[in-house]
Write a structure and sequence with these properties.
Largest sheet: 4 strands, mixed
Helix content: 55-70%
Distance between the termini: 60 Å
Number of strands: 12
Radius of gyration: 26 Å
Shape: globular
Strand order of the largest sheet: 1-2-3-4
Structural class: alpha/beta
Strand content: 5-15%
Mean pLDDT: 83
Length: about 400
C-alpha cells in the first residue's frame, strides 16, 4: 500500500507509491518552466529549488489533509491504525464505523477544512508579497520565489478542498453524501446505494466532459477528467457489489462461516512447501503455526505474498507468520459482516473465533467466501423458481 514515514495521533502515516511519479512530474514541470520562461533571470538553483519546494509542500499539504480526517476521527473516539497519503481520495482506515451520521460528516469534511485553511494562509502570504508594501519587481529574486511558491500552494490547496468535495468515491464528497442520506433515512444500506449511484452519475458526467475536452479544449485536462470519471464509476460499481454482499449475508453470524478444523503446520516448514501443499487453489486460506501443543502464530496468503518467491525455499513459516497474540479475536455470535470488515482492515486471511471451548477455531476469507457463494447460489435458485412460477401463471391465463 505504501511506505510508512511517520506516526501521528497514534496512526501510521503511509505514502502511496504514486508519489514518486507525482513529485517528479511537479518538480520537472515547474523547474523547466521557471528556468526557460517565467523566471529566466533566476539562477538555476533558485528556479529548481522553488519547483522542488512546491512539490514537497504539495505532499505536505495532502498529508495535512489526511491528518485532518485522522484528528477528528480520534476526537470522536475512533481508532485509526493507518492513513494512506495519495493525491486524491487517500483512505483512512478506522477500527469501527462512525456511530452517527453527524460523526461521519464531521470526519469527512475535516480534510477539506484543513485544505481550505491552508489555501487561505498561503493566499494571504502571496497577496502580501504581490500587493503589499513589498515592491516585488525590484525585490531580490528570492522574494519572487517565495511569492511563486505561496501562490502555487494557495491554488493547489483550494483545488484540493473543492475536488475532494465532489460526490464520488474515492473522494470525501461521497462520504458526505452517505452521511446526509444516512441521517435522512437512518438506513446504512440505503445511504450506501445512494452514494454509489451519485458517484456513478458524477463519474459518467466527468468522462463525457473529458471526451469533449480532448477534442475542443485542453487535451491533457480532458484526459485527466476521463481518468477521474472512470475511477469514480469503477469505485461505484465496487460499492454496489459490496452492498449486494452485505445484503446477502445480513443476519449471518461468525459461527456460520467457521473453519472448525484449520490446517496446522510446523514452524520449520519452508514457504515453498507450505504454498504448494496448503495454499494451492486455496486463495484466502490460512493455517495455524504450531510447535507440539504450543500455538505460535497464523500464516496465509497475505503473509507469503509479501516475501519474494526466490527466497521461499530459505524462509520458514515461523519467520513469516503473524504472532498468535497479534491476531484479532471475534465472538462466534457476532455479526459476520463486522468480522469481514475486521479482516479487510487488518489485511489478514483469518481471525480467531472465541468459542469458549478448548479447540482453536478460525474464520477465514476462504470459509467466508464459500458461505457467500452458497448464499448467492441459493438466491439464484430462488429467483429462477420465482421467474418460472411467474411464467407458469402467465401461460395459465
Amino acid at each position: 500500500m505504501g511506505l510508512t514515514f511517520g506516526r501521528v495521533f497514534g496512526t501510521d502515516i503511509r505514502a502511496h507509491w504514486s508519489w514518486i511519479l507525482v513529485l517528479a512530474f511537479i518538480s520537472v514541470m515547474f523547474g523547466l518552466d521557471l528556468s526557460d520562461g517565467t523566471a529566466a533571470s533566476w539562477s538555476p538553483v533558485l528556479a529548481w529549488g522553488s519547483s522542488i519546494s512546491v512539490a514537497a509542500l504539495v505532499f505536505a499539504s495532502v498529508t495535512a489533509h489526511e491528518l485532518g480526517h485522522v484528528k477528528v476521527a480520534r476526537d470522536n473516539g475512533q481508532l485509526v491504525p493507518v492513513a494512506v497519503v495519495q493525491l486524491l481520495g487517500g483512505p483512512y482506515v478506522m477500527e469501527t464505523k462512525p456511530k452517527t451520521a453527524g460523526e461521519e460528516l464531521r470526519i469527512a469534511l475535516a480534510g477539506s477544512a484543513v485544505s481550505l485553511v491552508l489555501a487561505l494562509a498561503f493566499g494571504i502570504m502571496a497577496g502580501f508579497l504581490g500587493f503589499g508594501p513589498v515592491d516585488i519587481e525590484h525585490a531580490p529574486d528570492w522574494v519572487g520565489a517565495v511569492g511563486f511558491v505561496t501562490t502555487m500552494l494557495a491554488a493547489f490547496n483550494g483545488l484540493l478542498c473543492l475536488i475532494n468535495l465532489v460526490p464520488g468515491y474515492p473522494l470525501d464528497g461521497a462520504r458526505v453524501v452517505h452521511a446526509l442520506v444516512w441521517y435522512r433515512t437512518r438506513q446504512d444500506a440505503v445511504a450506501n446505494a445512494a452514494a454509489a449511484r451519485v458517484g456513478r452519475y458524477v463519474g459518467l458526467a466527468a468522462m463525457m466532459a473529458g471526451f469533449v475536452g480532448l477534442f475542443v479544449a485542453d487535451p491533457l485536462a480532458g484526459l485527466c477528467l476521463v481518468v477521474a470519471g472512470w475511477l469514480m464509476v469503477g469505485s461505484s460499481r465496487f460499492l454496489d457489489r459490496r452492498s449486494a454482499v452485505q445484503d446477502m449475508i445480513a443476519g449471518l453470524l461468525v459461527r456460520d462461516a467457521e473453519d472448525a478444523d484449520p490446517a496446522r503446520v510446523p514452524p520449520q516448514l519452508t514457504l515453498d512447501v507450505f504454498a504448494g501443499e496448503y495454499l494451492a487453489d486455496r486463495l484466502g486460506a490460512a493455517a495455524l503455526v504450531q510447535r507440539g501443543s504450543e500455538l505460535l502464530g497464523l500464516i496465509g496468503t497475505a503473509q507469503i505474498r509479501r516475501i519474494p518467491r526466490r527466497i521461499w525455499t530459505d524462509t520458514r513459516t515461523e519467520q513469516a507468520m503473524v504472532r498468535i497474540a497479534d491476531v484479532p479475536s471475534v465472538s462466534g455470535d457476532s455479526d459476520l459482516w463486522s468480522a469481514l470488515e475486521v479482516l479487510e482492515r487488518t489485511g489478514l486471511d483469518a481471525l480467531l473465533v472465541a468459542t469458549g471451548g478448548t479447540g482453536t477455531v478460525l474464520v477465514t476469507r476462504r470459509s467466508a467466501a464459500k458461505l457467500v457463494h452458497e448464499k448467492a447460489e441459493e438466491r439464484h435458485r430462488q429467483l429462477m423458481a420465482a421467474s418460472l412460477k411467474k411464467k407458469g401463471r402467465f401461460r395459465g391465463r
